[in-house]
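Thread title: Can someone regenerate the structure for this chain?

I was given the following input by a collaborator and told the matching structure tokens would be attached. They weren't. Posting the sequence so someone can regenerate them.
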Amino acid sequence: MIESLSDKKGWKPATIKTLIGRLTKKEWLTTKKDGRSFLYSAAINEDEALANQAQTLLSGWCNTDADKVINALIQAAILDDRMKQHILGALDQATYVDEVTCHCVPGQCIHHPHTH
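Best answer:
Regenerated them for you:
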């Protein structure tokens, strides 16, 4: 892993070990000692990893800005027609409410101070 990520990303071994440690702590990787080496395996599938990353990304923003975050991701991506249809399908299956409420810590939402 260190050799591969060093070559592909230019990361230093310490950075890679930190990443592996964090992924293991999140239980996204399992670790098995094999002599002097460690064997790593994915503990979650790609869909679970994507859902976790999406939740982490959205949790850093006010709930009322979810559309802006999603829009920014779409604008930053290179998409084909299949991907467009997948996104449109997700919109059809999304849960909608009459009004999204802010769940920021009181006084911390700079975009929506009137909600606190």
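The longest helix spans residues 46-59.
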